[in-house]
Input
Amino acid sequence: MYNDYKDRADFLAIYIREAHPQDEWQMKSNVDQGVCYPQPHTLAQRVAIAEDFSKRFSFPLPLGIDDMRDTADHMYGGWPERIYILDENRKIVYQGGLGPFGFHPEEAQAWLSKRFPATQPAD
Amino acid sequence: MKKLRWILIAIIAVLALAYGTLSYFMGGPRDVYGFLRYALPQWHKGPLRVGDTAPDFQVYSLDGQETFRLHDRMGSRPMVLIFGSYT
Output
C-alpha cells in the first residue's frame, strides 16, 4: 500500500505501547520469531525497541514514537494496531477496526484506490 | 442455603466452561489469562469516529531526539496513520 500510494498520500506510522511484551501477554509466535521485549517504561526503552523493529524490517514508512503517557494511542484508540485515513481537511475519512481481528489494511487500500482511481491508457 | 450452594456451583461451572472454550479458541489457558489481564483493560475504541476532525498530537522521532506534530506533517494530501508495535 505504501509503495503504491506514497506519491499521492502521506503515511505515518505511530509506534505505541507493546501489544505482547515478555512481562505481560507474550505470544508463542513472539518467542518463535525472537521478538522478546518487556513493556518499556521509559522513552529510551521504547525508542530502542522501535529502532530494532525499523532495522529488522528496513521499515520504509515515516515513524513517530508515542510518548510514555501513550497520548496518541489514547486519543485514537490505536492499541494494539489500527489504521486511520485523514483527508486534506484533517477529517477522519476511514477508521479501521481494532486489531488484530479488525485490522484490515485492504480496507484502507480500497479507500485509496477509490480516491485515486488508476487512469486507463487511451486505446 | 442448599439452593445458594447449587447456584454457586452452577456459576463456577459456567465460568469454567467459558474459560475452557476460550482456551480452546485462543491457544491455551495462558492466552486467555493474558487477554483478560492485559489486553481487555486497554482494548478500547477511543472517542473518534469517521467525520470527526483528527486531533493533533506530538510524537518523537525514531531516535527519540526530536519531536514533531501530526498536523505539521499534513499538507494537501490524505494522511494514512498506522498505529502498532513490534510485539
Q: What stands out?
A: Residues 43-57 of chain A form the longest helix (15 residues). The mean pLDDT of chain A is 92. Chain A has five helices and four strands.
